[in-house]
Amino acid sequence: MFKSLISRIGGDNQNYIFPTVNTTEDGPECLKDCADCTVHFPDKFHIDSERKIYGKIKPFATHVLVATGKSDWVSKPEWERGTIVHALCEANSKERLMVNASNLTAHRDESTSTNEEENATTVLLLPSFQFIDNVTIPSVPELVSRFIDNENNTSSASKTSLKTRACPHNYVVLLCSHKRRDARCGISAPLIKKELERHLRPAGLYRDANDERPGGVGIYYVSHVGGHKFSANVLVYRREEGQLIWLARIRPEHCEGIVKYTILQGKVVHPETQLRGGFDRERGVTSW
Fold first, then answer.
1. Tens digit of pLDDT for each residue in 182-202?
2. Number of domains in the chain
3. Could you tell me which residues come within 8 angstroms of residue 118 by beta carbon, excluding any fewer than 6 positions away?
4. pTM across the whole model
5. Residue 8's pLDDT is what?
6. Which residues have a Cβ under 8 Å from the Cβ of 206 and sit 6 or more positions away?
7. Over the range 206-215, which residues count as b (16 or more CB within 10 Å of their CB) and which as e?
8. Do residues 40 and 181 both lie within one domain?
């Protein structure tokens, strides 16, 4: 699948797969962090600032976000039996999946009547920017086979309650807010979100959870993504380019550059200290 179709650039190789800003193209201000942030991390917010992080993420092809309506979860949602997160983590797939709980809310069909459908939720698949509604634990194998492994099963499709719709955003930003896993994530996520919003709103790019206007940037909280000692982790998905740009050690003063260069242009301001990796499907490369 995706893994077999791509070349690899990773480990300690400093030929980053994403371009870095430079003063010739982007002007002398591109390397400067924001000086007028409205929020700041607490003085005692300590992280690992020494370890090399580029290429140090586990390979995956599809990111699955499960709508829970929450911004914090039990320490390990993937171990919580009887949940869709657990069912997806246990599912057999041809692809390597990354599964997270998220603060997305389930899209409800007003005609829903059965108990099973009332317990259904929504998942968002990235980087395909596709919502799947009416997901239940029994429907997880079908979800994986039809929408992740892309197997053509017409018999199940004719009977399914699963419904698909396109995610309207051009960009999706994910922030780890998993406080019960690591307090730093619970502290950093809302502050980073607030500062990102401050830079997105004047440009008409911010989209809240109920805003279905096409385009713009959706920002969502997710459960543990790994590397909380490098908080804040910020994952930027760019629809048209099929990209994931995974950043770490992000502070509020970095948000202006993330909006201007990373989200909108696919460039990284401080790759040597903040770029964990990612992939670019258009060019067929990954960092692992």
1. 999 999 999 999 999 999 999
2. 2
3. 112
4. 0.92
5. 42
6. 197, 200, 216, 217, 219
7. bbeeeeeeee
8. yes
Domain of 136, CATH number, reads 3.40.30
Q: Does residue 102 surpass a pLDDT of 80? A: yes
Query: Are 239 and 19 a contacting pair, CB within 8 Å?
Result: no
List beta partners, residue 108: none
Q: Can you say how many angstroms the Cα of residue 120 is from the centroid of all Cα atoms in its chain?
A: 22
260 and 193 inside one domain = yes
Unique residue bearing structure tokens 């020494």: 50
Q: What is the dihedral of CA 10, 12, 15, 16, to 10 degrees?
A: 60
Instruction: Supply the range of the domain harboring residue 134.
Output: 62-166
Token pair, residue 151, equals: 């197997």
pLDDT at 152 over 90: no
SS (H, E, C) the chain: CHHHHCEECCCCCCCCCCCECCHHHHCCCCCCCCCCCCCCCCCCCCCCCCCCCCCCCCCCCEEEEEECCCCCCCCCHHHCCCCHHHHHHHCCCCCCEEEEEECCCCCCCCCCCCHHHHCCEEEEEECCCEEEEEECCCCHHHHHHHHHCCCCCHHHHHHCCCEEEECCCCEEEEEECCCCCCHHHHHHHHHHHHHHHHHHHHHCCEECCCCCCCCCEEEEEECCCCCHHHCCCEEEEECCCCEEEEECCCCHHHHHHHHHHHHHHCCECCHHHHEEEEEECCCCEECC
CA distances from 100 to 202, 226, 257 (A): 30, 11, 26
pLDDT for 86-101, tens place per residue? 999 999 999 999 999 9
HSE-up (13 A, CA, CB side) for residue 209 = 13
Q: What are residue 235's DSSP bridge partners?
A: 174, 246
